[in-house]
């Protein structure tokens, strides 16, 4: 069984808005766009949930959990890089002190 084609976001929004405005039912929208009623219902629910979250947060969209996870990873890697840089500077300085100077030959 082949996977159905991916609909562009703009098309999903157009379909959901036509259902919400009463222009057509979920069944009609699904039939006209050759998708399942379940898909149209899911798009509608996602659309409404996104709007609900936007209103609840005063219109400010916060970072997604994936974005938060990536930011935490960036912070961790930045800290590790800083620590490695400091450690490398300490090693270089100690190596300079241990190496015989070129002018003492």
UniProtKB/TrEMBL annotation:
GO molecular function terms attached to this record: sequence-specific DNA binding
Record-annotated Insertion element IS150 protein InsJ-like helix-turn-helix domain positions: 12-55
A Pfam family hit: HTH_28
Transmembrane segments: none
Source organism, top-level taxon: Bacteria
Protein name per its UniProtKB record: Transposase
Source species of the chain: Amycolatopsis echigonensis
Organism ancestry: Bacteria, Bacillati, Actinomycetota, Actinomycetes, Pseudonocardiales
């Amino acid at each position: 069984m082949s996977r159905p084609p991916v609909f562009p976001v703009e098309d999903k929004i157009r379909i959901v808005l036509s259902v919400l405005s009463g222009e057509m039912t979920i069944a009609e929208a699904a039939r006209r766009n050759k998708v399942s009623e379940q898909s149209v219902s899911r798009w509608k629910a996602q659309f409404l949930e996104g709007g609900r979250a936007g209103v609840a947060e005063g219109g400010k969209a916060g970072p997604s959990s994936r974005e938060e996870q990536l930011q935490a990873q960036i912070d961790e890697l930045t800290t590790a890089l800083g620590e490695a840089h400091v450690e490398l500077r300490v090693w270089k300085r100690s190596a300079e002190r241990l190496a015989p100077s070129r002018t003492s030959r």
